[in-house]
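Open question from group meeting: does this chain pack into something compact, or does most of it stay loose? Before anyone orders reagents, we agreed to write out a predicted structure and look at it together. Recording both the input and the output here so the notebook holds the full record.
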Amino acid sequence: MRDVVEQLQRLGMSGYEAKAYVTLVGAGKPLNGYEVAKRSGVPRSTVYETLGKLVAKGAAYELRGSDDAIDYLPLPPRSLLERLRREFDDSIESLESSLPTIMAPPEAHLTHNLKDARALLTRAEDVVAGSHTDLFLSIWPQEMERLSSLTKLAVERGVDTSVMHFGPAPDPVGHLYEHRFPPPAVALEHLGYRLLVIVGDRRETLIGGFVDDSAWGVYTEDPAVVLMAAEYIRNDITMEIIADRIGHDSLREIWAGDPELKRLRAGHGRPAALLRAVGGPDLNQPLTY
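Structure tokens returned:
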């Protein structure tokens, strides 16, 4: 019951209104104000005012007896939910046209830090859910578990979705490529974090990292950063496609023997040290999903 009350509050009812409505629904018969107060915990001093507000909203109905006594019946839950859904959709449609008209031009491209896993993953959900044309993800299984359903919805609405997945994916979605070169364990050792990179519609990107029980991240709409993030994922995918075409053994031989590639790999492990030194995660911050 507590969960239902909280959800109704999120949809616009006050706490007393939600408690009174749930009580009416659970009674299965008309109740008077005294009975609602007794069963719901709404104070008797405010129960009739609360019931009056439910009636005004159309969430309850008055039943008047021959002696002018008033009982109350709830609007059936299915009808209430349909009504709330219509009202919510109408408000969203109205705001879609009205909010942009009052928005001031930004003085700079939006950028903000994300300092724990909850904020990081919630913002990641925003980027995935807000994509309309294309979506790029470089992601590990732990984070994909949280974002998989929204990514599937993006694919269903026609978003061209490319996923670089570190390790096998039990439920592939979109154009998914398994990161095998180098193996995920080697990539993790090199960087020190499970790196999460998401790019939506080539206009916004989220970059973050997870390690042990900590997380850090940044969201930005800066076009240069968005471009680099998209190219990072595209190049990773390109490497995997090439490895599949020429054979992973052949690519490993080139990777191990080419002097220029050795030079570029000379900083092995240094990225992890740099990230820790310049604002990586607060190691005392718990990682919560």
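Observations to bring back to the group:
The chain is about 55% helix and 20% strand.
The longest strand covers residues 204-211.
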